[in-house]
Specification:
The chain is an all-alpha fold. Helix content is 66%, strand content 0%.
Length: 404
């Protein structure tokens, strides 16, 4: 069940039963999730279960939705309920078994992905095309020439008979919560960002109407920012970042919260630059201006540049050879840079120091983006400071070479 290479190819011998692949996939999923319930630390079983559910989801059969709901309701939902509200709520779970697993960040991250995937399939089944089913007469009727003959499955029939209509508003809300938890693992922030949080993940919550998600609240923006910071930290090691693929899911949640899609992309670039990885997004920054919030981008980058330049100036002041250059910098511009840098420090906005060359390159790039702009005077002042510092450093390096 967990390895395709070890599963005997029964359908090779029972070719007529190929028409029942949906039913076979449903049984496979139910068996696998039952085995996972006995050994919940083995997430490979849950992964194989979800792979089987994909077959049902793609064919939109009625017993497929019934199987999805059974697996969600009996196996996955109780874990999420205990995770969000504590073990006293979900009697179906053993605290002794699951408490250590929930505290395991790696296990929890993988489980959340599978849980969110199942919710996503339920969402697509309930919001897409009408659910259909293969007429049983064609498979179980006397006219069927299938051998060995099929018998109606009491398990799947029972699941279909107790199938209740789920509420789309509720599935969407559960899906958003699972998505945001996957991105942030911050339950308190999620609770403040979505409505009716305490009603979620109960036995009947998918079958009850939920209020619409409020749009663009401070808590929602904070959640999105938190997720973007996480993704930026993970992708910052890449030598070249030429697309926004790693924040596609963040973008989807942002849209559900009513945020402008440009915001998530802009914030992501800001975070990469905050980490000092300017070079990795050179092409992306240049080719994405149409899908970015330009004013917001420049405003935030000016703060980062001021912090960088102030750090560079403070470092050069410690070297006797550069003190004369520092004294010749425009006093007003230098004080403004210092004030901006101190403001960032007071707000606990961390940033990674970058070299003078990297900083100057970014300033020049912004200068080309802000011609005749409200930010042009600020960028020009930064450019004059960085040019003077860069010239002084290069002259000093050349002098050192000559001295040698």
């Amino acid at each position: 069940l967990t390895s395709d290479s070890l599963s005997p190819p029964l359908l090779f011998y029972l070719k007529d039963h190929g028409r029942c692949s949906n039913r076979l996939a449903a049984h496979r999923a139910l068996v696998l999730v039952g085995l996972w319930g006995q050994t919940p630390d083995n997430l490979l079983l849950l992964q194989r279960c979800v792979e089987s559910l994909h077959i049902l989801h793609e064919n939109a059969v009625q017993f497929g939705l019934a199987t999805l709901l059974e697996i969600w309701q009996s196996r996955i939902r109780p874990v999420f309920q205990s995770l969000m509200f504590g073990f006293g709520i979900a009697d179906e779970l053993s605290q002794e078994v699951f408490s250590s697993l929930i505290e395991d960040r790696e296990w929890l991250s993988e489980f959340t992905i599978h849980a969110r995937t199942v919710l996503g399939m339920i969402l697509e089944c309930t919001s897409g095309h009408p659910i259909q089913d293969i007429p049983d007469e064609e498979l179980f009727g006397e006219k069927s020439d299938m051998w060995p003959p099929l018998r109606e499955c009491p398990i799947l029939s029972s699941l279909v008979s107790k199938l209740r209509p789920v509420k789309l508003s509720s599935v969407k809300l559960h899906h958003i919560v699972a998505f945001t938890f996957e991105m942030t693992h911050d339950i308190d922030s999620i609770a403040s960002a979505v409505p009716s949080f305490t009603r979620l993940f109960s036995a009947g919550s998918l079958f009850s109407e939920m209020p619409p998600i409020p749009k663009e609240s401070i808590e929602q923006r904070r959640l999105i920012d938190q997720a973007i910071v996480e993704r930026a930290n993970k992708s910052s090691s890449n030598p070249v970042i030429d697309n926004f693929d790693c924040i596609k899911d963040v973008d989807l949640v942002g849209k559900a919260f009513g945020l402008d899609p440009k915001y998530t992309k802009t914030r992501y670039l800001i975070e990469i630059i905050r980490l000092g990885r300017d070079a990795s997004i050179n092409d992306l920054l240049g080719g994405s201006s149409a899908i970015l919030m330009k004013s917001f981008l420049i405003e935030e980058l000016v703060k980062i540049l001021c912090a960088r330049l102030n750090n560079i100036i403070s470092s050069l002041k410690r070297t006797k050879q550069y003190r004369g250059v520092i004294s010749r910098l425009d006093a007003e511009a230098s004080n403004w840079v210092k004030d901006q840098a101190e403001r960032i420090t007071s707000q606990n906005d961390d940033y990674t120091p970058a070299s003078l060359i990297t900083t100057h390159s970014l300033i020049v790039r912004l200068q080309s983006m802000t011609e005749n702009d409200t930010f042009s005077d600020q960028i020009n002042s930064l450019c004059l400071i960085s040019e003077m510092l860069l010239k002084a450093v290069r002259e000093q390096e050349q002098q050192r070479v000559l001295d040698v």
